Amino acid sequence: MAKTRTLQQTLLLRVVPLTLVALIAIVWVTRYSIRRTVAQEVSNRMQQNATITAIALADRLNLLRGTAKTLAANDLLINSIVDKSQREGQLVVFLRSLQLPSPAFRHVTMLDYRGRAVMTNGNANPLPVERFIETVMSGQDYFEIDEDSILIVAPVQYGGSPEAALAIEYDTTVFLDDFLTTDFDHEAQLFDEGQRLYRSSEFNLGDDRWIWASRALPGYPGLQIRQSERQSVAFGSIKNLDLFFLGVLAACAASLILAVSLVTRGSTRQLSLLAEQIQEIQEDNDLSRLVDVNETSEFQSLSDSFNRLIDSLSQTTVSRDLLQSSENRLRAVVDHAPGGIIGTDHSGTITLVNDATENIFGYDRSELIGRPITMLIPDALSNPDDTNDTVDLHPQFSFRSWDGVRPAAGRRRGGEAVFLEFGLSPVEWSDGSGLLATVVDVTKRRQQQQENERLRRETQLILDSIPATVLFKDRHNRILRVNRAGAEMVGLPPEQIEGHSTGDFFADYHAYYKDDLEVMRSGKPRLGIIERVSIENKDTRWASTDKIPIFDAEGELAGIIAVINDITELKNAQAELEEATRVAKESEERLRLTVRSASIGMWDWDVGTSNVRINRELSMQLGEELAYENFEGWQRRVHPADLPEVEKAIGDCLEGRATDYESTFRMRHRDGSYRWILSRGKLAERNDDRPLRMIGVHIDITDRKINEVALQRANLELKRSNDELAQFAYVASHDLQEPLRKITSFCELLDEECEGQLNEDAQRFMKYIVDGAHRMRTLIQDLLSFSRIESQGKPLVDVDANDAARRALENLSHAIQESNAQVEIDDLPVVRADPTQLAQLFQNLIGNAIKYRSEAAPRVHVCGESRHDKWVLSVSDNGIGIDPKYHKQIFGVFKRLHSMDTYKGTGIGLAICRRIVDRLDGEIRIESEPSKGSTFYVEIPRPVETQDKADAMIQMRLNEIETTADA
């Protein structure tokens, strides 16, 4: 048998380990948190130091570059460009004596515009010519750093353009050693795009781990400074952290063990005292004694529990005496129960009845004992579910009871029928099995129910005859009654509605119930509530609802009656009337504002009386303040030369020869001048084919007539300008190109005649002359093409863009084969354009895509699509791309982004493209980035049928006037 532990041992073995585990967890979390915080502070310090160093180093490099720029601006250097003799004089002395204060300074060199060293005070390293020309000769300073040297080249400008350069070289190691200090625990390194240029320490760093932080130099892409520090130095402040926590953990463990020992010692002494008192009660068999250990509340509660147990045992003997008394009371309750109680044996013979049973059936108790229960209730032993199945009362079968009570018919003394509620349950008597039946006389209740049912049928008949929906609801929003109209509204039979809440059928039942509560609270009806009725799977209807409170016989609130009349058709008719009224007002206001804002005069002519009613705008056109005019007065204002034509147009409309009236004429103003008027109208009323009324508008078109004259003059001036441009084109194509052709021919002839006799310089000069003449001819031809876009352009017709693109490819076939280009053309639309100029547009765009190519073979994609009312043609390539800041400049004349030596051309091609697109009322734009190719988009309007805007507006106003007059 295992040895039983004491309470003190148990507490020590269970409490101490768990507490130690918790302490260790707390110590570990605290240690981890402290180390993480210190690591974050070290990281922040390293990042901050690296940032400061990067900024300081960038500032020092900027200072060196500023020094070079300052020296390049020296008057002596600038004057040397003008007077080259100074290179042998003062300039030599200046450069050889130049010593910069930096210990890293090596030498300074004077360069010419080709990047060649002209003069130096040391051994100058050669400078890449291409990069020199690309940067320094474009006005920018040049900066380069490697493991050995730092080179800074500043342009020397004369007359606003770079003519020479000054190069200063520094020792990289000396410069950075003087700037970046280090020791055994720290070091610094400088990197350029992944390649280390400088390291501050070359000694063995050992096996210790290092932490580092790097930062890019501001303004020097690719340059990074990295600073490192030994991990043991960075985290030296927390070396003794583990020893401190171990000491704390040991102290806590010792304190815990001592505390548990002291607590358990007092507890075991009190338990021993309690055990001794219980043992004494057991030996003396004295249940009247009580235990008493009250040194602490816990042991006092334990003592009380033992005392209650002893008291319960002492009271068990008392319960036996009370049992007999309880049986006597139960017998008295059965005898005086308000309902009848009948007990039988297993055969159904009555063995027990109470006083209520005697009163219900009219028999004496002695007359019933020993008689079968079927004498009182004939179907007492029948199965309620099947009258031919009787209840088996044999002892070996289990008795059954019916759920609740059931109606049954009984017989009184003398054979009188009585209506009963009958319940039957099997019981176990002291002498065997039997039945216990309960009976209640419900004869009067049944008669009342029949009367109530008759009244309900009559009431329901009345409710169903009402066409409106009628709901009877209780105080809890349950529907108790509903008529036929209400059932039809919900779409369910009444029995599926009654007994349910209105929330089961109506979506907005919360709002309805709020009105119900107000009626029930005030006790006053609310009539004519206009509300929406929303039922699931049915259209929302409008209803007028009356809610009336209902009180019971005692005057207590029983619920409300809601009478709901469907007024949807009435609301729809009202809404249609309101909408028609609103539309009429808006139309009238819109017409009034439109006429006023457009300064359109309106007239209404009564043909029978010859009176003409005019609006304020028409009177202002005449310079008068008139509201009425007669036809004869109106005729007198019309210019005599225009009057016959006006009267003819009016007569045609009145006699039915024309549907509408329209005429343009001059009308005399109050100041004596004539205003041009456009008048339109139509017949508004007829009587037996006789015109009665005519309405129309007056529009002052004097400004338009003036503009038409001005436009005619401008067209004449444009024609004259085009004729002069054509004359210039003729002169340029013949008189200007003829000398160039002679220069080219004679130079080629001279080259053939003197073949072998010209030296190398003469041959090169001859080639310059021929190339210059060819470029001049190309420039003249491009200028002619640019100038002839408008003057010699063909009429715009429908052109298949596929044909234009194919003609462009035929013209570019040599360039395509030479560059191995791939040109893909999708199915293009038919556009409104000049066929020749559209082909030139494609040729210029595709040609540029082939010319400005990268090292890869050119790939060009031409496609077209429809966007809204425009055709969008696009030409995409994989070329060198264009910086977005030049996107607008490239469409100007002579705008080039590259030198003639790099890409040949005149800089007019894209300007021609823009002018061609402008002639089509279109737009050309570019999307491109360097090294990512370019896409040119050409948007050309799609042809649409148009009409005069003023005529369209006038026709719209006449239609509105006609609609208003008809209304």
UniProtKB/TrEMBL annotation:
Residue stretches making up the Histidine kinase domain: 731-944
SMART domains listed in its UniProt record: HAMP (SM00304), HATPase_c (SM00387), HisKA (SM00388), PAC (SM00086), PAS (SM00091)
Gene Ontology MF terms: phosphorelay sensor kinase activity
Protein name (database record): histidine kinase
Protein encoded by which gene: cph1_1
Provenance organism: Crateriforma conspicua
Class of enzymatic activity (EC top level): transferase
Lineage: Bacteria, Pseudomonadati, Planctomycetota, Planctomycetia, Planctomycetales
Cited Pfam families: HAMP (PF00672), HATPase_c (PF02518), HisKA (PF00512), PAS (PF00989), PAS_3 (PF08447), PAS_4 (PF08448)
Statement: the UniProt record of this protein carries the keyword Glycoprotein: no
Catalytic reaction list: ATP + protein L-histidine = ADP + protein N-phospho-L-histidine
Subcellular location: Membrane
UniProt keyword annotation of Transmembrane helix present: yes
EC number: 2.7.13.3
Residue span, HAMP domain: 265-318
Coiled-coil intervals, chain numbering: 560-590
